[in-house]
Amino acid sequence: MKIREIECKSAIGKCGFPGGGLAINPYVGCGHGCVYCYARFIKRFTGHTENWGSFVDARVNIADILKKQLRSPKYKDEQIYIGTVTDPYQPVEKKYKLTRSILQVLVNYENPVSILTKSDLVLRDIDLLKKFKKIDINFTINTLDEKWEKFIEPDSSTIKQRLKAIEELIKNGINVFVMMGPYWPIFTDPEALFKEFKKAGVSQVFTESLNTVGGNWTGVENVLKKYYPKVLPDMKEVLFNKSKFYEFYNEAESKIKELSKKYKIPVTIYFGLGHAAKFK
Fold it and tell me: Hey, which of 51, 57, 130, 131 has its CA 20 to 30 A from 217?
């Protein structure tokens, strides 16, 4: 892993999520090495040529810059997402504590905050999280198959660790959402996942299909070729055959709608079907 310490000129950027908002990313790159990660596109803007998952730049002055920027009234009460193109609790956070330093700044403001992560390291900051008036943690959990998870998200926390972290956060009064995405053909069992989400106390579920652009699919394909060669043809047919894609994800949408009602967990679905479906 190549780790550099850099300084940033701005701590806040625009969020590309459908609902808009602001984004704060304490690191450039991510040590989790998820083979399907959409955030690899940032290599085009940062000069990195290394493989995704093999480099991390720590933006060591980000908390100081954030303090200065938040003095501007234009940021007042705006939704802030931490970790839109990096995981704020990836392994290097243990050393640099940049996410914690960001939270120590934000706790003094009224902005609603969402943290996106795959790591149970978030529990380290539970003392700070409890001080926020409006905060939620959004964990990615798209399968209960630990073997598959380790192949596609190699250096992230296990599913078991994430579920335990969710329970602990909720016990401490912190709202938790789950991103059940990418929603995998074959490897995502929505019924089993909803049972776990309900047991843990998850407030809301989001789900999406895989962004297959460029290296996002290549990494998945390499894993399938090596470990699941018999599954590869079916996976490709669903993801790249338009009629099969619509057939599969329309069925998945219907199933998720049923599960949302059954388990009383609101769901928002982004399956590339031309709309975002919200169920309560």
Answer: 57
Distance CA 233, CA 213 (A): 18
- In 3D space, the residue among 158, 123, 118, 155 whose CA is nearest the CA of residue 138 turns out to be 118
Residue 279 has pLDDT above 90, yes or no: no
Residue 261 pLDDT > 80: yes
Tell me how far apart the alpha carbons of residues 280 and 167 are, in angstroms, rounded to a whole number. 22
Angle at 174 between CA 171 and CA 179, to 5 degrees: 105
Contact in structure between 181 and 206 (CB atoms under 8 Å): yes
* pLDDT for residue 33: 92
Q: In a 10 Å sphere around its CB, with 0-12 CB exposed, 13-18 middle and 19+ buried, how is residue 280 labelled?
A: exposed
pLDDT tier at 247, thresholds 50, 70, 90: very high
Pairing between β-strand 113-117 and β-strand 276-279 as defined by DSSP bridges: unpaired
pLDDT at 211 over 50: yes
Long-range Cβ pairs for the range 62-65 (8 Å, 24+): 62/8, 62/11, 62/24, 62/26, 62/98, 62/101, 62/102, 63/11, 63/98, 63/101, 63/102, 63/104, 63/105, 65/8, 65/9, 65/10, 65/11
Strand partners, 116: 138
